[in-house]
Specification:
about 575 residues; alpha+beta; Beta-lactamase; Lipocalin; eight-stranded antiparallel β-sheet; globular; Beta-lactam/transpept-like; Beta-lactam-related; Serine hydrolase; hydrolase activity; hydrolase
Length: about 575
């Protein structure tokens, strides 16, 4: 990736010069926040948003809030260096905010009594369809729409040729081939597990039901009837002329995303104006079949735990039935959005950024005064000598190695198959990242060198990456094909430290590791009685092999930790 800041781009506008001038004047002539009798955007959120623009977390931000009346808009930053500010008609990639639109197509068919939410995949496609039998027999449309299908977030074989274009290589044939082999990571209906893959399949099923391409069905039945003229999967030239250029976490130009087989999970583009109109239609649905479908979207399908957390169709829900909030975020390589509304109230909030950094924390603060925006972490200059000391390779598991390199711009970390992340110094040892919001710390050894790298997730959990020497080599991550009878020899129950138990079971050409908590993890065989996860630092190594059989002892590598486990019998 080119780490230089982008050149100044020409100003682009899809409206007539007069219309564009009037839109700009409307923003310029809006009274400053201190003169508004009742501003809908508190000073605390304005200041937090501006501070993040100033610190380079976003290229620009567009914030809209309504309490039933006219929307109050706040526009900060520039769409490009020297370019215009965003306005309510600027077009953005909305990523996963596409999912409630997909769910609306599903709800519309269900409300017409032509489709049951509890119809299975097999009932939709026919049992002769070459998909995994568990998927066809057990997974329902409702489970796909509420992330309870047991499908993983993405296919194990996603492996994009360009990590900055995540889904561009994955077409419909690859999707169906994967789903025919080993789709489930958990038993359907038992766990909430967010799944882009589930929505990719749901989009395919809806195409079959409507006998129409997904984008055509969405336009004919949802966006056109609601007057959402600037919401589309395939924008026309006039719309594209209004599109905000995308920037990554570090304000370098990011490519637009092509979602291919995952279009129903995240391929829509839209504007702040349209998203406000979309949410208003759900607060005051028309007395039509479409209105009934929109009402169904924010009805709880199942509870997710405390604080009134629940899942609707497409929307995530917070709060009690009387004060419920429906919300969803969306991110691509170069855009981030947040939308939320009160189904039984008046408030609607939309935030749009042409930067890949998430904006949920700003949106939640506008929906709930009790939610505060986290303090902004400020980086400081890094001594180049320290950068040279920290650069190197760090092993999280035998085959999963991250690389830290020093450039003129600073330190960058790269994990296998993922974009580089810039490390911003908080002090001489601690660094933060943007987008994934992790904190990293380099820990020295007694000799004054670097022993390991600690990676701390924002919601807890630490991964330890051990510093590698120049002569060390990572274990190969090459899949070794095993016959079913060979793979079955590695299955069984195992215990770590005599207490924690996990299971290994064959699944097509891989093993599934499960512990009874959350989805199973797929592990693929490699040379030397090893099994590895394709995109996580999780590996197994069977030790003590005798007479061609796997031994009773294995080593589990997870998040940089090494655990010894022993096989246990069925009677233990």
């Amino acid at each position: 990736m080119d780490q230089d800041r982008p050149p100044i781009l020409p100003v682009r506008s899809g409206r007539t010069p007069i219309a564009g001038l009037l839109a700009g004047l409307a923003l310029l002539l809006a009274p400053p926040s201190g003169l508004l009798a009742e501003t809908l955007i508190p000073d605390s959120v304005r200041e937090a948003a501006q501070a993040r623009i100033d610190a380079g977390h976003y290229q620009s931000l567009l914030i809209g809030v309504s309490d039933g009346g006219p929307t109050e808009w706040l526009s900060l930053g520039q769409l490009s260096q020297g370019g215009p500010a965003p306005d309510p008609h600027t077009l953005y990639e909305i990523g996963s905010l596409t999912k409630p639109f997909t769910a609306a197509l599903l709800a519309l068919a269900a409300d017409h009594d032509t489709l049951s939410l509890d119809a299975t995949v097999g009932e939709m496609l026919g049992n002769d369809t070459p998909l995994d039998h568990r998927l066809k027999e057990a997974v329902t449309l409702r489970q796909l729409a509420t992330h309870q299908s047991g499908l993983p977030d993405t296919p194990d074989d996603l492996a994009p040729s360009d990590p900055n274009r995540l889904f561009e290589d994955y077409d419909r044939n690859r999707l169906l081939a994967f789903l025919s082999r080993h789709p489930l990571a958990a038993h359907p209906g038992q766990h909430f597990s967010y799944s882009n893959l589930g929505y990719a399949l749901l989009g395919h099923l809806l195409e079959q039901h409507y006998s129409q391409a997904f984008d055509d069905a969405l336009m004919a039945r949802i966006t056109t009837p609601l007057g959402l003229d600037s919401t589309a999967l395939k924008p026309d030239p006039e719309l594209l002329d209004r599109e905000a250029p995308g920037y990554d976490y570090d304000l370098h130009r990011a490519p637009p995303w092509s979602w291919r087989a995952f279009q129903a999970a995240g391929s829509l583009r839209s504007t702040g104006h349209d998203l406000m109109q979309w949410m208003q239609a759900q607060q005051s649905p028309p007395d039509t079949p479409l209105g009934q479908a929109l009402w169904r979207l924010h009805q709880p399908q199942f509870r997710l735990g405390g604080n009134g957390r629940a899942m609707g169709l497409g929307w995530q829900l917070l709060g009690s039935d009387e004060q419920r909030v429906a919300w969803h975020g969306g991110r691509t390589a170069g855009h981030a959005v947040f939308a939320a509304f009160q189904p039984e109230g008046k408030r609607r909030v939309v935030i749009m950024a042409n930067t890949g950094n998430g904006v949920d924390h700003l949106g939640l603060a506008l929906m709930n005064p009790a939610h505060t925006v986290p303090p902004l972490q400020e980086s400081r200059p890094l001594d180049p000598k320290l950068g040279a000391l920290y650069a190197g390779r760090y092993r999280l598991s035998p085959g999963f190695v991250v690389t830290v390199r020093q450039t003129e711009q600073g330190l960058y970390l790269r994990a296998p198959g993922r974009p580089s992340l810039r490390l911003y110094p908080l002090d001489d040892e601690r660094f933060m990242t943007r987008g994934v919001e992790s904190e990293l710390r380099f820990v020295d050894n007694e000799a004054g060198g670097i022993a390991h790298l600690e990676i701390r997730a924002p919601h807890g959990g630490v991964q330890i990456a051990t510093r590698m020497q120049s002569t060390d080599n990572p274990a190969p991550r090459t899949v070794k094909r095993l016959a079913p009878e060979e793979l079955a020899r590695f299955a069984g129950r195992f215990r770590i430290n005599g207490t924690t138990e996990f299971h290994l079971e064959p699944d097509a050409d891989r093993l599934l590791l499960s512990s009874g908590k959350g989805p199973s993890r797929p592990l693929y065989p490699a040379p030397g009685n090893r099994f590895f996860h394709r995109n996580q630092p999780l590996e197994l190594e069977f030790a003590g092999q005798t007479s061609g059989e796997p031994g009773t002892r294995l080593i589990l590598y997870r998040n940089g930790q090494r655990h010894e486990a022993h096989r246990v019998g069925d009677d233990q």
